[in-house]
Amino acid sequence: MSTTSQSQPAEPESAKRKAPTEQTSTPTLTFTTRNPLWTYLKLQLTHQPPVSQSTLIQPLDPLTARTYLSAALNQFLGLSGTAISIDILKIDPPTGTNAKTIWIRVPAPDASAVVAALSSWVGGGSSSGDATGAGNVAWRVCAKGNFLQALVNGSGAEMFVP
């Protein structure tokens, strides 16, 4: 029994791939997010008449915002609603015609329940016990999205308009 070994012919030097000397462009990186962890909401606190001018220009503090958010969740969902994690990201002070705006982050599975609770809630606005001129307050859901950058800067549709 004889074994013959077949040797493969050596590749010529010109067939080898040469390393590029200069980089022409940066590679494009793409990714897909199917199940985002968070949902971002832009809310506006509105006052129902009668309301005094001093109430309108008073800034919204984080403690009052948290109290109003918890009251809405408690009224709509009960004790399980108050267990929903809410992160207050930013509170915009009222300026001119712009009302009191707040940005929050909630877990994505709870987003629809939070939107339903906040949009249907109307609470008493008198925090100091003085019922004159305070009126009632309510949350208005201005925007909802899975990515904060898209909510802040818009949808990007203006890029495709000729």
Note down, in words, how this protein is organized.
With 162 residues, the chain is an alpha+beta fold. The protein has a domain at 38-126 and 134-152: Ribonuclease P, Pop5 subunit (Alpha-Beta Plaits, 2-Layer Sandwich). 25% of the residues lie in helices and 23% in strands. The longest helix is centred in the middle third of the chain and has 16 residues, at 62-77. The protein starts with 37 loop residues before the first strand and ends in a 9-residue tail after the last helix. This is Ribonucleases P/MRP subunit Pop8-like domain-containing protein. It holds the Pfam family Pop8. Residues 38-121 form the Ribonucleases P/MRP subunit Pop8-like domain. Residues 1-29 are annotated as: Disordered.
In brief, what are we looking at here?
The protein has 162 residues and is of the alpha+beta class. 25% of the residues lie in helices and 23% in strands. It has a 5-stranded antiparallel beta sheet with strand order 2-3-1-5-4.
